[in-house]
Request: fold
Amino acid sequence: MSVRDRVVLLVGGVGGAKLALGLAHVLPPESLTVIVNTADDFEHLGLHISPDVDTLMYTLAGVANPQFGWGLAGDTFRAMEMVERYGGPTWFNLGDADLGTSLVRTALLRQGRTLTEITRQLSRALGVGPTLLPMSDDAVRTVLETDRGSLGFQEYFVRERWQPVVHRIRFEGCEAAQPSPAVAEALDSATLIVFGPSNPFLSIDPILSIPGIRQRIAGARVPRIAVTPIIAGQAVKGPTAKLMSELGVDISPLGVVQHYRELVDGFILDEADRDLLAPIEALGVKVTARRTLMQTLDNKVDLAIALLDWVEEDQL
Amino acid sequence: MSVRDRVVLLVGGVGGAKLALGLAHVLPPESLTVIVNTADDFEHLGLHISPDVDTLMYTLAGVANPQFGWGLAGDTFRAMEMVERYGGPTWFNLGDADLGTSLVRTALLRQGRTLTEITRQLSRALGVGPTLLPMSDDAVRTVLETDRGSLGFQEYFVRERWQPVVHRIRFEGCEAAQPSPAVAEALDSATLIVFGPSNPFLSIDPILSIPGIRQRIAGARVPRIAVTPIIAGQAVKGPTAKLMSELGVDISPLGVVQHYRELVDGFILDEADRDLLAPIEALGVKVTARRTLMQTLDNKVDLAIALLDWVEEDQL
Reply:
């Protein structure tokens, strides 16, 4: 049994999708399961939108918009242009082909299918090899308490462009939510659990907020490795650094490790943060410095290889 | 008070939209109200689709697809291509921009707005001058009893391409349906009521199936004129002639006049059917022969002028 046999990756959206793509190039499809945050899901214009699931699905299918990382390559926006003409809400931009995904998902949900079943059907139709699993079939929703009041994730992230100051983050419904049977099974049989370089507070925490997931990870007897979303005091993308500051967390890989506490055995930080190797090691977490910025496909594959090799060689 | 002051036109889709466009070129916007069949409305992919309302709206806004008469000019079909990739239902083709209309309508319906209010908002946004009114805010649904079983309108018309043999047509919900206040007011204050050259059985009958509409038209003391949908034993488009045959109705303007019975005072047939002037007159219905085929905008305007002039001059 190798650590490579059943790798489970926890992710949010664009950042996590990059590592997922790297791992998908290195592992056979049956050896990679990606558990995706669904606390960003929301109803918009009557559609059930699962932004992170779609980002992962499109990325792994090779059809994602290369510029943004989300949405579909070459998509058009005629439907939203009409919505705008009618005075409808346009702050969340959905491409036309992207709408096709949300339409089918929404229709299948109304027919009583689970998000897990639907994600399997859609990702297979797009030719995705690895298994993509929504973290739960139950609704968990990220709510941010901010200086502009209580905001849903997409209101905060897209409509308000993460400008409000965040005091607190809640995951509504998390206590009652169950991991889907597929998520439970993936975690129970994992040979390696990886926390993607996603926002710890907005992408990974929602996954960990589900008791049945958190307990399984806390009790796992396999290596649990986190990849840093922070490089040299900066987030690669998005509000991670700003949020950490607002929540009083050290904007550094050390802050991330402290946040994950007893849930991780190993940590990959960026070469730019070598000075933090010792402080992290002092917390009892194994740590290594690698190139973690994943701008090209080669970067992604290299980081995936480095991660797997490190875990294997160091027998974490 | 002239008959031109408050013209009310009853229509279904493409055929009726042509006469509506003709009248819209001749009458000031405040003098034309179009009451549109909504018994073809259906839920598809979670969207509330109002095909006839949209056809009228797009036609009067000058943005309809000139080739088909329905849908939007120059629209693309990326969303439906994705739906097809996912194995979803593609028998009802919705363009991308057209989807924008259905998304906004569906979202507003879910917010509790009426179809009448929504149609006003959307048609104004597109610059439509005349008043477009869905026949009712209550759901009435056309169901066809056929040799392939009971079919909803769109299943019969689009999915099965009107090939099944029809035994009977029902309008589910018609007995309980109320005309909207705006429809009731338009009929009560009409100076002229025109039955568009739409399918009498599938487009006009659903409107007349609502007791509060039928009674108002039956009791109206203003001219009520029907324009033939049949020319020389043929429908201009669609299943009208086939249906009339299956329902045992004479496929001719005479059959149409007999179908409308006591609801019309006057009838415009095509010049090709001059031989039916006397038989129709014998039924006590005033009748005139005109060019009714509306291929060009000039044809539409000419027919609208001819209709209004005839009613005025003959003091119907």
About this structure: Chain B touches chain A at residues 45-47, 75-76, 78-83, 85-88, 95-101, 103-104, 106-107, 110, 121-122, 125-126 (CB under 8 Å). The mean pLDDT of chain B is 94. Chain B has one domain: 7-313.
